[in-house]
């Protein structure tokens, strides 16, 4: 599809690596028509806890899933996004908390900025598998488990917000790289 002059597109990416979220924020700053950034978590939902509960436990336990790149308690690059939102203080506070294994609680200002900038969805392994199978059945496209995770997260966002804009899913991997996981996922 194409965007009209005043239309925006949403961007979806996994939560294990914040480079997608950071890239979307830079695109917004540069004036690109970016709507909502949908950050998709698996059962390791520390980003959801940060956004909705206001605290991220840096010493949490990581649950192994089929989407291993999202299996993290500390999202890679989160400190860069915190710096972009609030400067040195939030990035340094997060780094100290992570180094010491403490909980990170951002200031009210940074938390509100996080909540404005991203929508976070938690997608279970089973739901990711259902999304991958559904996409294969309806579109005849084989997608990676990470793209299926993002697709399900976007569906959550659309159901909650009522938005139905075009969405760019930042592809994490080609499906053939996860052939064993896909074979298991799709039965």
How would you describe this structure to a colleague?
With 187 residues, the protein is α/β, with parallel strands linked by helices. 49% of the residues lie in helices and 14% in strands. It has helices spanning 19-29, 46-53, 78-86, 88-100, 108-117, 125-139, 145-161, 179-186, and strands at 9-14, 34-41, 56-57, 103-104, 118-122, 167-169. A four-stranded parallel sheet has the order 5-2-1-6, sandwiched between helices. It has a two-stranded antiparallel ribbon with strand order 3-4. Helix 1 (19-29) links the parallel strand 1 and strand 2. The mean pLDDT is 91.
Largest sheet: 4 strands, parallel
Number of helices: 8
SSE string: EHEHEHHEHEHHEH
Oligomer: single chain
Give the total of beta strands: 6
What is the rounded Rg? 16 Å
Question: Order of strands in the sheet with the most strands?
Answer: 5-2-1-6
Structural class label: alpha/beta
DSSP strand (E) fraction?
A: 5-15%
Instruction: Give the end-to-end Cα distance, rounded to a whole number of Å.
Output: 32 Å
Indicate the percent of residues in helices: 40-55%
How confident overall, as mean pLDDT?
A: 91
Name the poorly predicted regions. none
* Shape annotation: globular
């Amino acid at each position: 599809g194409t965007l009209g002059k005043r239309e925006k597109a949403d961007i979806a990416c996994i939560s294990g690596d914040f480079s997608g979220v950071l890239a979307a924020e830079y695109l917004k700053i540069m004036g690109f028509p970016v709507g909502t950034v949908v950050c998709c978590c698996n059962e390791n939902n520390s980003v959801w806890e940060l956004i909705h509960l206001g605290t991220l436990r840096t010493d949490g336990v990581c649950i192994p899933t089929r989407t291993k790149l999202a299996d993290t308690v500390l999202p890679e690059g989160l400190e860069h996004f915190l710096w972009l939102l609030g400067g040195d203080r939030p990035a340094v506070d997060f780094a100290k908390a992570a180094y010491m294994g403490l909980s990170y609680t951002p200031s009210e200002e940074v938390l509100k900025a996080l909540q404005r900038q991203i929508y976070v969805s938690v997608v279970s392994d089973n739901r990711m598998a259902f999304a991958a199978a559904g996409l294969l059945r309806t579109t005849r496209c084989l997608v990676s488990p990470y793209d299926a995770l993002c697709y399900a997260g976007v569906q959550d966002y659309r159901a909650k917000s009522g938005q139905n804009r075009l969405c760019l899913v930042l592809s994490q991997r080609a499906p053939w790289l996860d052939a064993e996981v896909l074979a298991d996922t799709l039965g």
